[in-house]
Amino acid sequence: QVHLVESGGGLVQAGGSLRLSCTAFELTLSWYTMGWFRQVPGKERELVAYISRNAMVTNYASSVKGRFTISRDNARNTVHLQMNSLKPEDTAVYYCAAQYRGTNTINSPDYWGQGTQVTVSS
Hints:
Strand content: over 45%
Largest sheet: 7 strands, mixed
Number of strands: 11
Distance between the termini: 40 Å
Order of helices and strands: EEEEEEEEEEE
């Protein structure tokens, strides 16, 4: 059974860093565009970043550009999100997602992780 497992969330002070990881099971990661989304209560889930199958293309939400970096290790079936200079407004549940269809896009993921909480204190 395919599943994505996130880790690395937690509580950090503003200005600090966290590194999220997403490991895929029963799924060949290299076939999928991978992304990180986040959601706060009462708001829609938003795309934070995505990375193409071969890691040649990345894209970021304007709110995190220059602070977050997405990367992938297809051999280890893992995707990472390095988050630096964190702000209180980055507080959310972060979800890993995988999409098979399309090229360099992640608008309709086939699989989601269970989410990991990131809390940034001021």
